[in-house]
Write a structure and sequence with these properties.
446 residues, alpha/beta, Rossmann fold, 2 domains, six-stranded parallel sheet, Diacylglycerol glucosyltransferase N-terminal domain-containing protein
Length: 446
């Protein structure tokens, strides 16, 4: 029997977990689900743990708690924090045990093997804590697969009791292994796989649509230029986007903005404000899963040329090529938290974003309104480079001026024309088929 057939076996059930803690882990779950082989039985295992959601929002929104969290994510404080946080997560596993037992009760054919995919470390620890107990009670085999959703070696992502942990880079793998060894933790297999980006957005654009994306990179386009602006799950950066939109529109009236935002009390004012702006298509929902679906639909129905986003898990959209549906040019706002800086480091190591020196030069030239000459541009943006994203300067006015300067000086156009797929795919960490590789590895575990 081939590895893929093990997943389609009637006795195998794939369980995707879901926690109310931002959109990142849900986007990854969606990507993995989209690439699942046909004929595989799946269920969604949700958690109503409001503690996870409250902690996520509180840390993301408040400056002081963000600073405190940063302190806990380095050196010895991280080790101490992880020890107690892991104990806290594992101590509250009763609800998770009941939910997994319910899955067995609800199936007409009782599964012999449960493959549980965890894209949130909180749920991963809870499942690992009750895994053995459920196996003994049901007689079934439970395989816990953890997918790390940023290229960050934060210790909390090491889950004792998991069958395997997939990480986006060798750097993260080595740091997690070193931590586990020094902390004398149970050994868990850690494997490097390209980040799992949604295969439905890796479809090739037809030549007309790709030409349209190329044309939209320059101020000479004289046509509608589509931007995608997803508001993060914790609603960080709303003020930045709220000011960026009118500042860009004052420079070019044919910018069109697709704003995706969750309906919540803390986003209501933002939604009301941007709804009144011209050329803004606002997409809202109360449900995280619908927000993720709408985001993908926007890319499938429009030729999106730019996406303004935080360097969160969205950073890994840089693994799409420009000629793919999801291959917009990524424009990153200021990073929030250690994991976003770690993601930027991943992009720099692989040459997918300009290094800090060139980024600063571009910002300085834009601030001074300097024209980028041919020779200087060739030096800053040489051919055969895999640049897929650009970091924006701090502040919405500077960012808007920088975007417009780049368009007038054909910086974005040079990036897309000089883009080299060969350079982008020189490393197994930057392939765009991470989802297919994920299921290939998981089927071997089954």
């Amino acid at each position: 029997m081939s590895p893929r057939h093990f997943l389609t076996d009637p006795g195998t059930l794939v369980v995707f977990t879901y926690a109310p803690a931002g959109l990142g882990h849900l986007r990854v779950t969606n990507s993995l689900s989209a690439g699942l082989p046909k004929g595989v039985k799946t269920v969604l295992l949700g958690s109503s743990d409001k503690g996870i959601e409250a902690i996520h929002k509180f840390i993301s929104i408040h400056v002081v708690t963000r600073w405190l969290m940063e302190w806990f994510q380095r050196g010895r404080p991280q080790k101490i924090f992880t020890f107690f946080y892991r104990k806290y997560l594992r101590s509250g596993s009763d609800e998770m045990r009941r939910k997994i037992e319910e899955i067995f009760e609800q199936q007409i054919d009782v599964p012999k093997t449960l493959v549980i995919v965890a894209t949130h470390f909180g749920l991963a620890h809870k499942i690992a804590a009750v895994k053995r107990e459920i196996e003994e009670k049901t007689g079934a085999k439970i395989i816990l697969v953890v997918q790390v959703t940023d290229d960050t070696p934060q210790y909390i992502w090491y889950v004792p009791g998991a069958d395997t942990i997939f990480v986006p880079s060798r750097k993260t793998m080595l740091e997690l292994k070193e931590y586990a060894l020094k902390s004398n933790l149970e050994k868990v297999k850690i494997e490097v796989l390209p980040y799992p980006i949604n295969p439905s957005l890796s479809k090739k654009l037809n030549s007309k649509d790709f030409e349209r994306r190329e044309t939209q990179m320059s101020a000479d386009a004289r046509e509608v230029i589509d931007f995608c602006l997803p508001v993060p799950g914790a609603a960080v950066g709303m003020d930045f986007l709220h000011h960026l939109i009118p500042q860009l529109q004052s420079k070019y009236s044919n910018f069109r903005f697709h704003v995706i935002c969750k309906e919540a009390p803390f986003t209501r004012q933002f939604s009301q404000n941007v709804r009144s702006f011209p050329n803004v298509e606002l997409h809202t929902s109360k449900h995280d899963r619908e927000i993720v679906d709408v985001y993908e639909k926007i890319y499938e129905e429009n030729v999106i040329s730019f996406e303004v986003t935080k360097p969160s898990e969205q950073s890994f959209k840089a693994l799409y090529d420009f000629d793919m549906t999801g291959g917009s040019l990524l424009l990153f706002s200021n990073p929030v938290g250690r994991q976003e800086r770690d993601n930027l480091d991943f992009l720099q190591r692989h040459g997918l974003i300009f290094n800090q020196k060139i980024t600063q030069q571009l910002w300085d030239y834009a601030d001074a309104g300097k024209t980028l000459s041919g020779a200087l541009k060739d030096r800053l943006i040489p051919g055969d480079r895999p640049i897929r994203c650009v970091q924006l300067p701090f502040g919405s006015q500077r960012a808007a001026n920088f975007i417009w300067w780049c368009m007038n000086n054909r910086v974005f156009e040079s990036i897309i024309r000089n883009y080299s797929k060969k350079a982008a795919n020189r490393d197994s960490e930057t392939r765009s088929d991470g989802v297919a590789l994920f299921w290939s590895r998981v089927s071997l575990l089954v």
